[in-house]
Amino acid sequence: MAIDGIDGSGKSTVARGVATALTARGIRANMADRSGVTAQASVAAMTAVIKRSDGRLERLDPRAEALLRGARAWQRLAAREPGGVLILDRWLISDLGRLGEDAYRSHRPVFEEIVQAASDGPTILLEAPFEVTWSRVSARPRHELSPKEQLGVEENKNIYDEIAAGSKRFVECGGEIQHIDATQPVEQVIANAMAVLCQRDGCHSADFAETLEGGIPHGSDQATHSDR
After folding, report:
1. Could you give phi then psi for residue 92, rounded to 5 degrees?
2. Coil, strand or helix: which one is 177?
3. How many Å separate Cα 109 from the centre of its chain?
4. Fewest beta carbons within 10 Å, which of 50, 68, 141, 174?
């Protein structure tokens, strides 16, 4: 299960909430982030290089960036455990949106293969206005901001264009996106994410659906829609 969106949309909070809800119901869940305590060391190292490039500290060659983002995605998928749910905080929508057109076209087969490999779980895009998300980001201590975020609001306003481009490319690569309104109370967003997870292939058994039932309020699908 992948949860994507712009910075400040609540990805990490929702990912942790879903993991906690699943674990409480006896379903094994593990997270494979891009950095932090739940990231593989190799993934964290690749993320550090990508962040330096995003923040204009050391620009990557566009071809190297495409390959590195692809390698990071494959390594994160390697954290899957049999019989469990792997939760990814930020996914390929963000990566694809950062690539230049030539780099994307040249390496599209790489990302098509990754999308196919992860197609047994949903990709969720959390949506919220930039003013809301940036207010959350700017309230964080400076040392918690990425090099790109430290460049300030004007340098980050293009994030919606990047997410739009990444969403289009993700669908081109064969992916499906479930959209969730992230301006709702976080408990509702988590419940909606749980509902999406239950509806996917592999979650149709009666036992699994019954296990998730407690976290899905009536009508929780009303704030979701999908792109295929």
Report:
1. -70, -20
2. strand
3. 20
4. 141
Task: Give the amino acid at 122.
Answer: P
Which tens digit of pLDDT belongs to each residue from 37-72?
A: 999 999 999 999 999 998 888 999 999 999 999 999
80's CB contacts (< 8 A; 6+ apart) are 86
Token code pair at residue 113: 């293969």
Contact 87, 123 (CB under 8 A): no
8 A C-beta contact, residue 70 and residue 114: yes
Tokens 């309104």 belong to which residue?
A: 181
The residue with tokens 């390697």 is: 78
Token digits of residue 31? 């997270």
Owner of token pair 């992916």: 175
Chain-centre distance for alpha carbon 43 = 15
Look up residue 173 and give its two tokens.
């690569």
Please tell me the distance from the alpha carbon of residue 30 to that of residue 195, in angstroms, as a whole number.
18
Residues in the chain: 228
Q: How far is CA 178 from the centre of its chain?
A: 11
Report the chain's terminal Cα–Cα distance, integer Å.
Answer: 16
Closest Cα partner for 194 from 207, 212, 181, 218?
212
CA dist., res. 20 & res. 72, Å (int): 25
Kindly write down the DSSP assignment for every residue of 121-169, as one continuous string.
Answer: S-EEEEE--HHHHHHHHHTS-GGGS-TTGGG-HHHHTTHHHHHHHHHHH
Amino acid at 124: I
